[in-house]
Specification:
The chain has 144 residues and is α+β, with helices and mostly antiparallel strands. The protein is built from 3 helices and 7 strands; from the N terminus they run ααββαβββββ. It has a 7-stranded mixed beta sheet with strand order 2-1-6-5-4-3-7, with helices on one face. 15% of the residues are buried.
């Protein structure tokens, strides 16, 4: 897929789906955003998710953490991407998560490796880091 505008549109679609899944704690919807196997990396932990059971267990734990923190909204900022190959992209999204009383719970940058599979981009790897590690890539993504 060579068209930059089409790549942007498909990426925005995936990240909008990801944000809807986080807001509603929807395991099926979030699963549509990922390619298996995949890896989730934080400064504290690296998880290899080989199959549906691994994925469900990891995301149920993530959803529980968000519920415990009383997540009510979030913002996706400073988002950009660049192509590695025709099928593989690097995407940067800076996230801010807010509580019910509109206090910042956490902010971080997430760097995604995305593969084009089944007519959409899917996350193969995500590395979550301190906001200071945010990347500025070749093409911008704007979320509404």
């Amino acid at each position: 897929m060579k068209d930059i505008a089409l790549k942007q549109q498909k990426l925005i679609s995936v990240f909008n789906k990801l944000s809807r899944s986080l807001a509603s704690y929807d395991l099926n919807l979030v699963r549509e955003c990922y390619h298996l196997p995949c890896t989730l990396s934080t400064p504290d932990n690296v998880m290899l998710l080989n199959n549906e059971d691994d994925f469900n267990q990891a995301y149920q734990a993530i959803f529980q953490q968000l519920k415990d923190a009383k997540l009510s909204s979030f913002k996706m900022l400073n988002s950009s991407f660049q192509s590695i190959t025709e099928e593989l992209l690097l995407v940067n999204v800076d996230w801010q998560f807010f509580s019910e009383d509109e206090q910042l719970i956490t902010d971080f940058t997430a760097i995604y490796h995305m593969i084009f599979a089944n007519e959409q981009y899917q996350i193969m790897n995500v590395v979550s880091q301190d906001m200071s590690q945010s990347l500025v890539l070749n093409q911008t993504l704007t979320f509404k």
